[in-house]
Every structure is written in structure tokens, then in C-alpha cells.
């Protein structure tokens, strides 16, 4: 996986409920394009023939209904009980998402001063290696669970704890990221975002990462 140095590419990552999307909304308000990898992964699982065939061959034809719609509940039941199956799922989906992202970068590189990729599994999938700078969004587990349950009351605490346990910890992500923003509702995150936005426009960062654009 290699970097496209035509434009500065920033990663934003964090566990479920950490508030990645909230921070990305601020960057969007600053007129920066954001690629939501989790959204596009779900979209590609419904529309990409390579992924659909791979999922059917690996997990059975029942993972899609007669209308070609993905049975997410069935697939989740299969993969979250078996790490090997989850690895199989990621091996099918991630390469197609990477390729889709590369196309998105090529389309948008001339339109913005820098681009952002938002993804929960940025380090786990190794997609961070194609980026120049990664921001980790950290938040206490209790707040993360409360946030997710507020937007989706059907999610149980046990289910969410299971998902969190399979993701990197905030501390592990912080070791790999260039910057950590604490989005606990108490810290003033807006100024941190504005400072980063300014930093991403400076000649120093373009020189540091050999950006050619």
C-alpha cells in the first residue's frame, strides 16, 4: 500500500461512539471533503459484484436475500462469534474499499487543499499506511456506549462491549497516530480542529510529506 503524494491525506479514526463523525462534520464545514470508509464499505457490500460473490462463496448464499440485499444481522452473527470468519470478511471487503478510496482521491485531489478519510479500523486494516497524518479520536467507554445507544436504542451494552473489545484501545491508537483529540464532551475540540486545519495548510507539512500538488 503506497501513498499518493499528489495531495495531503489525513486519517481520522477512533472506536465506535468516539465521535469521529462529529469531528468530520467540522472539517466538512471548513469545506474539506471527507471519505467515510465505513459508509462506503456498507454501500459496496450491496453494490460491488466482487464483494457480493466473495461473501456468498465464503458465508453462504443466504447472506443476501432474493432482492440482492445483504442480511447484515446474519453476517454479524457469523463473524463476531469467530475471529477467523471476521478476518475472512475483512479480506473480501477491505481491498475493494481501498480501491474505491483511491478512485475518490484521484477525482478530488485537484479540488481541495487536503482530503480526509474517516475509518474505525484504520490501523487494524493497515489503511493508515496510505495516509500522511492520522488523528485518533479518544473517548471513555461509558460515554461511547451511551452515544451509540442514544442513536440506536436497540443496541445492548453487552453487544457494544463486545464490539469495543475487538477494536484497538484508545491507548493503542494513540501510539500510532500523530495526534489524539479527546472528545469526551468536556474538552474544547473546536480549537483543536481549527489549529489542525491551519497546520494542514502550512508549507512545512507539505514539505515534510513531499506533497507534490
Automatic annotation (TrEMBL):
Keyword Lyase: no
GO terms for cellular component: cytoplasm
Pathway terms, separated by semicolons: Cofactor biosynthesis; coenzyme A biosynthesis; CoA from (R)-pantothenate: step 5/5
Principal subcellular localization: cytoplasm
GO terms of molecular function: ATP binding; dephospho-CoA kinase activity
UniProt-listed Pfam families: CoaE
EC nos: 2.7.1.24
InterPro entries: Depp_CoAkinase (IPR001977), P-loop_NTPase (IPR027417)
Positions annotated to bind ATP: 17-22
Keywords: ATP-binding, Coenzyme A biosynthesis, Cytoplasm, Kinase, Nucleotide-binding, Transferase
Cellular localization per UniProt: Cytoplasm
Catalytic activity: 3'-dephospho-CoA + ATP = ADP + CoA + H(+)
The UniProt record lists the keyword rRNA-binding: no
GO biological process: coenzyme A biosynthetic process
Family designation: Belongs to the CoaE family.
Job description of the protein: Catalyzes the phosphorylation of the 3'-hydroxyl group of dephosphocoenzyme A to form coenzyme A.
Protein name according to UniProt: Dephospho-CoA kinase
Organism: Psychracetigena formicireducens
Gene this protein is translated from: coaE_2
